[in-house]
Design brief:
Length: 85
């Protein structure tokens, strides 16, 4: 999985948990919670969906790695590649 595909997975999950959000103008280098109306429960839902849909475990100490789309891609792409291997 590429970094761009990883970003799309995260956006797809956000679209599921926050269907009213306009994701068309999300900037990849800006914190998601600064751009979208996501609360801490929404963020936990993202983590849970990553595990449920893709088998990706994100330890609590790594949650800051999911702050922006770019940081999500940096952190999650190797995990997706490991799951797919």
């Amino acid at each position: 999985m590429t970094k761009e595909e990883c970003k799309q997975v995260v956006l797809d999950i956000i679209a599921e948990i926050a269907p009213d959000e306009d994701l068309s103008s999300v900037k990849p280098d800006v914190r998601l919670r600064d751009q979208l109306d996501l609360d801490s429960m929404d963020f936990l839902d993202i983590v849970m969906e990553l595990r449920k849909q893709h088998g990706i475990e994100v330890p609590e100490e790594d949650y800051p790695q999911l702050a922006s789309l770019d940081s999500c891609a940096e952190y999650l792409t190797p995990k997706f590649q490991a799951v797919q291997a």
